[in-house]
Here is the input.
Amino acid sequence: MATLPTTLTPTKNTVTRVAREAGRHAEPVDCLVDGAFGLDQEQFRARRTDAAAAIAEKVDVVVLAQGSMAYAEPHLERVYGKPFWGSPRFGAAALKKALERKGLI
Here is the structure.
């Protein structure tokens, strides 16, 4: 799920690559939250919730492709009863692992 079309392809490529590396198969489904970029938080939340309805029954998990969406994870999970994963959480975890491997933390 993204608010800008330029974010969808790189995110789908990353999901597909990581799944392949893990020996799994992933079939990304586009979810563009059209017109949401630049809205205030409440309008953004409503637009994102509506957009998720279009794909919720088709997917096992929704990846929120932009950090600005991460705060909505709990709300979307309650509404749709499935995982919504924001990129900051996973990016921070990957950064921590990389720093640990290098002995920096």
Notes: Strands lie at 62-64, 84-86. The domain at 5-101 is CATH 3.40.50 (Rossmann fold). The chain has a mean pLDDT of 87. The radius of gyration is 15 Å.
